[in-house]
Input
Amino acid sequence: MSKETTFENARVGDRVWDAHYGWGKITGHRFNGDPSLQVEFNSPLRWGCIRYNFEGVPSGGCSPSLFWDEVKFEAPVRPKRKVKKVIEGWYNMYLNGSMSYRHYTKQNALDCNRINAIGEPVFIHHEYEVEEE
Output
């Protein structure tokens, strides 16, 4: 048995649920011209009737809001944003491939350890992204 999610076989008197207005009752249908249902609501959110197509889209709407039963919506939490991080500084390079600790000025790098360094200190700038905390 297939499950019906549309309203081609709906009957007058069937209860339906609208995501905006809550529970209502089908009070009429039209099959010629533009097939549609008329649903009456009797709630503080909506008094009176609204027309829907057989997919549950209200007249003038663009997505379904009418269903056979109540639909529970769960709002997703905001994903963590990406934050740009920057590491930069002056480094001494050594013959064995290692570097010195980061120095904030070229002069500090020169003063730190010139004994086994290769040439002048190198300025390194690196940007990357991480999730915010």
Observations:
- Residues 15-67 form one domain.
- Residues 71 and 126 are 48 Å apart (CA to CA).
- The radius of gyration is 34 Å.
- The first strand starts at residue 15 and ends at 18.
